[in-house]
Amino acid sequence: MKSSESSRKAESHQLADRIRKLREGKRLAEAEEAGTAALLQHPDDARLVAEHAETAVRSKNWGAAIKRFKLLGKLEKRTPGHDAAVLKLVAVYVALGQPGEAETLLGKALAGHGPSLLLRKAEAELAQQHAGRGFDAARWRTLAESPELPAAGDPVRIPVLSACVAGLRLAGHREEARDLLERHYHKDNPSWKELLKDGYARLVVFDNGHTRAEYLSKLFDPPTGDTVRSGRLAITFDVMEQTWNKEFFAYRPLSPGPTDFLAVRKRSKEDFHQDMRRADFLSFALPVAAGYQDVVALGQSLGAYSALYYASWVPGCRVLATAPRNPLHPRYAGRRYASYQLFTHEYEMPVNPGASPVIVYDPRNPEDGRYVEQSLAVAFPGALLLRYPHCGHSITRYLRDVGVLKTATLAFCDGGGFPAFDRSKRGTSPEFLRNLGKLCLRAGRLDRARALVLRALELGADPERSRELLVKIDTASAGIPST
Hints:
The protein is built from 20 helices and eight strands. With 483 residues, it is α/β, with parallel strands linked by helices.
């Protein structure tokens, strides 16, 4: 009998692993079929149900995800896995824009299964995501004083404590948060670095299913283990290709220092922040920013547009906008994404005389140059316009090529100026050479275009872009019509 039970468990584990690997390989239809077949054999196996539910989430089959996570909660009713199942279902309701359902679920789970520190943490975090509610210190204070907390294991105690510290900081009780951290944090305990690898506590402060704002509060410096008191907040906005399951913009250069973040994220590449009103943003950004002496906002392309549209209205916020552009804009963007129907913001950026953003752009780029000089320069009369000719829309690639991307970003955040265009470094940037090559190709100067792109290839950065352009030049040289 025991041998038969062991055999069934081993088989179900193999099936669960296969479903997960299919899903990770983006073979979602096969993962769905494999999950359905596996559950016919093992209908009450919690691990299989969990994998099947995750497949539904990845496929955005929300109805199936809800049913499967509810089943998982019943199967895990008396086990440590119950809380995880509830939290997964909460995430689905939030993704669907149904925070009320998520709150109801948490309330029922807490009432039916006794005090759960992780569920209470989720309840406190969800409560502060409602616009207009503000950040309530009482919830986090009560959670931090829970009698169950000291006896909880590190995998529960540390995430709950770190959330309480971040929650108290959000509510403006920074000294109380510091005292709480100093009472419970021990840098000799390896669990802190294992569970908070970068030293940050994370809380979601806004989530409407399409746009999410994540607050990251730095608790300690991982290399030294010393606690950190941050006086700077960086508000970041992602480029179009970034989604909220990836590292957010500017995290890598800024996170080693004493910087907290308010990262505004997107669920999908097709989300252009048209779902979030400026009033929504300010409802959470203003109280967060109020706790900091220095506030900066950064973005590239769509992120730069969003930094100007949203964060420039935060008093005292210093904005660095690199190549600002919203691909949906029906007047200033290219044809690929531009849409009068989908673009809901004002066609002209609202005039903000109180802001003095630094706008870095290529005046020779047809879209960026026209947008900055005809619209943004009017909207921000106090703006500093830094022109980087022939560096293209991807100015950050040029800055990386010439070795100043990180230092320029850090210098701006530290209160210094952003560097002006340095003509002497042009020839060391493959991005600059490719942009000149494109101009020569359009002008019919094919030999010059080819020489520029070959030089870009020698320099090495982004060689696939150079090879793609070289094919176009060779095609033109051979007299073959472009498609």
